[in-house]
Amino acid sequence: MSEEDTTTPPLFTDLGLVPEILAALEELGYEEPTPVQVAAIPPLLEGRDVIGSAATGTGKTAAFALPLVQRIDGKGRGVRALIMAPTRELAVQVAEAVHKYGKRLGVTVLPIYGGQPIERQLSGLRRGVHVVVGTPGRLLDHIRRRSLDLSAVDYVVLDEADEMLDMGFLEDIDAILAETPEGRQTALFSATFPPRIRELAERHLRDPYRVSVRPPVLETPLVRQVAYVVPRSYKLEALGRILDLEAPTSAIIFCRTRTEVDELTESLAVRGHRPEALHGGLNQTQRDRVMGRFREGTADLLIATDVAARGLDVEHVSHVINYDIPQSPEVYVHRIGRTGRAGREGTAVTLVQPREHRLLKGIERVVRQRIEPARIPTVADLRARRMELLRAELHEILVSGEMDGYRGAVESLADDFDLLDVAAAAVKLAAEARRATEPEDERDIPHWEPSREERGGPDPRGPRGRMDREPRGGGGAGRSGPMTRLYVAMGRRRGLRPGDLVGAITGEAGIPSRAIGSIEIADQFSLVEVAEEHADHVVRSLSSASIKGRKVGIRRAREGVES
User: Fold this and answer.
1) Spatial distance between the Cα atoms of 361 and 454, rounded to a whole number of angstroms
2) Second CATH level (architecture) for the domain 12-212
3) From the CB of residue 230, how many other CB atoms can be counted at a distance below 10 Å?
4) Helices then strands (H, E): number in the chain?
5) Angle ∠(534,538,544) on CA atoms, nearest 5
6) How many CB atoms lie within 10 A of CB 456?
């Protein structure tokens, strides 16, 4: 028998990061680095070129972004760092991460990608930024316009290089790198290393340090794995419905940060659950008290971060729920391994935001198992489930025979009513009493289907820019006939959410929600699809209405300009 490994996992404080970055990570609730971060951050901080073999979802964004913001430190003028990514979704995601990590150091960042109005990007470049994150095609466009000067770049990252080459960007990448100084530091990350990637690295990297992360293969045949793709604004409602439908006997719900753990614990307690929070902010006495309640069953839900949940000894957990999708396949394996133990069956549920669909596919590739897609339970599903539970409770009462005190009430009604009707009335009374204590959420949670691009191929719809896309109605289920796009002069900066538009359209125009198609929320405006037969009526109805207390302009969208 081998000796137990008691090595303490490294912390972010062990990697050479400055206090400002450590404070940002603490604020974000990050508790420990992933393997690729542990391996890549120190050599990148030393100024070495790095080749990283790491798939989507291993935490590689922080692995290259944290050293990047530390090394440029918000000093100097002009673009100091360039990050290339294959898609607009990834470019936006990386830019957001760089902003969060570097804001205490004064680091500014601008995403550049096709589909977004180029005037907005030109304005941002004229103001001046330290970091540009972009797709190769649009970056090359700016270089040719002379609106992007890369002569002062110290740091270049090629993120998901294999995907960029698969999409035909090799010549563009070579042309872009030719505009950067020869003495720059370069990091290249790729899930696979075909000959073309090796040749690219040989041309543009100098004596690179090699980092390779190989997560373990999943072996949990007794775990049913399902994923629900749901927009962020609907995650809490979706989780509530999933818990009602699954009815776990005991469940661990994983969140990414301790702040999210505390907020989710409070929200679920308000909804009638018995949750307990477990994260790195608790001392050992508090941890022991929480685990005692969970083991005894006085708490049915344990809301935890990965660090806090390490080494938990719990005999049986019926469900593991990833409220936040894990950032690495290895973490996913560790999480769901806490259910389906000792020959018992278990269930692993993962909530995925639409833009995180790539993370899910990356986890599937590494664990070599498909995660079953599922639809968010509807209100009708929940009613059917509650009736099923009520039937089961009635069956237990009938089997127990403890009904003597109630027979008199039934006998007094039997002379005037059929006994089957009397029983049905009693069931109705019980169901309505339960509904009064468990109010239903009538909010329509949109169903999302990945585009062809997000499934791995080109998207025939073309680039759409930075939008919060929330398709509704199962990709057209329940609708017939053509759809028309409407332009609404209000967007994300005014706090507009898809639910606000749905409420305004169904409330003011009186049309059913199934007549509403995809909703896209941009910073300054929104686009919403409605059935052509209702389009003019919706425009007239909303022209005199208010959304979030404001009068807004609405009209048919101009084809080609607002599409």
Assistant:
1) 9
2) 3-Layer(aba) Sandwich (3.40)
3) 25
4) 21, 21
5) 160
6) 11
